[in-house]
Amino acid sequence: MKIQSIRGTRDILPDQIQQWHYVYDILKRTSEKYGFEEYRTPIFEKTEVFKRSIGEETDIVNKEMYTFLDKGGDSITLRPEMTAAIVRSIIQNNLNQIHNIIRVWYFGPFFRYERPQKGRLRQFHQYGAELIGSPFPEADAEIIDLAISIINDFGIKDYQLLINSLGNSVSRQNYKSALVEYFNSNIEHLSQESKQRLISNPLRILDSKDPSEKDVISNAPSVLDYFDSESRDHFELVLELLKSSGINYEISPQLVRGLDYYSHTVFELRSNALGSQDSFAGGGRYDELFSQMGEKPTPAVGFAMGIERLLLILEQSALIPVFPSKIDFYIVIQSNDYLSFARKVANILRENGYKVIIELARRSFKSQMRDANKVQSKYAAIIGEQEFADNSVAIKNMETSEQIVYTLDNLQKTFKK
RNA sequence: GUGCUAUUAGCUCAGUAGGUAGAGCAUCAGAUUGUGGCUCUGAGGGUCGAGGGUUCGAGUCCCCCAUGGCACCCCA
């Protein structure tokens, strides 16, 4: 069988790379507008890092991690997400000892062992931002503001912002007990999977898609009724700040998210362009993560965005710009005897900063012209018998078909960048 | 991890009731003895995703594996 890449992984081919640069550039620029700085960490960590943060009972840790023993016998995991790694790094480098707010963003590959589907890969890319050091609702609002700003900068119009609050740890605990009690007394209406979740992670029952348990779920107690005053105030202020900056949202009491470390605000961005995997960004507040990692409590909010899913949306909405021609000059030679002269011409132009292609396959004159047209070169630099004899080159504008002969001196002077 | 579905030239796809493969585009070359895009002509390119089975004979039927897609699960 023909050699193949690993299931659920993809090559980014040269004709796609410009899209990736385009996406990266916008993410970078928008993040910087909010004062965020790029952060990079290794793509693997000790397995501990993810187990302790994401939660032992989550699917990500239970069945989706690429975990292996290295030659020293340590358990290593390819990162399934970034937040845990950044928190580890911040602790390690004592960045949270300084009393500043930390604003960072990242872009890179992540790994989850799942059955591939459209918009779901085993190696995928995420952008994300983390705002560390503020317990206040204005930080939540700032993060959501950044996410929306990115969406706007890409020109995406067709999306929904769903938001919810899980409350602080006290109110979440109260809510969880109430939920467990409720579902236990209605256990005959629950699916097999939800019965499992009742033990492992009862909150997750809420976003089940099984129609048979829709009724039990919609009659379940709502988080909103279990908030203490701190939780309620926090959530209300977040919503108020969003409203005042004109961000439309939809409160979704069933939104829970799959990572254990969230408290207070959680949110998700969804798009109809995506099908079943309709969420392309998600995040929330994780005030308890630092203490879970054995550090002094440090409040934080963040979110992540799936780049492949973002690209799907951009493609479907025709929001990817047409990129201009890559090549400035295509050197066309009449005979292979002119090769060293052609190289000289190419280097003059390259020294002036132009992108120059030279024939390497010994193809016919006609083929070279065709190729120059195909790669959308702006000019063809033609070297025929006459030009070779005169130490000159004919520069043909491929769009207008205008052609002017230059001596090498004039060429250098005329085409300066 | 479960179910359904697809897999034929580089790409998009035909392939009739099982009788050892075709088109368009792309590529290369020519029509055009110094000049691309349009048109025309020709050429190269496939052990029909891998393996096994039924059959005189399988791209076509059966099994299994791999990969993609859809749904579940979960998430970006």
> Level of helix content?
25-40%
- The number of domains: 2
Provide the CATH architecture of the largest domain.
2-Layer Sandwich
CATH hierarchy, class of the largest domain: Alpha Beta
Low-confidence stretches: none
- Principal-axis shape: elongated
* Beta-strand percentage range: 15-25%
Name the average pLDDT.
Answer: 90
The largest beta-sheet arranges its strands as 1-5-6-11-10-9-7-8
Distance between the termini: 50 Å
The count of strands amounts to 16
Give me the secondary-structure category.
alpha+beta
The CATH topology assignment of the largest domain is BirA Bifunctional Protein, domain 2
Radius of gyration: 28 Å
Number of helices: 15
- Main sheet properties: 8 strands, mixed
Full CATH superfamily name of the largest domain: Bira Bifunctional Protein, Domain 2
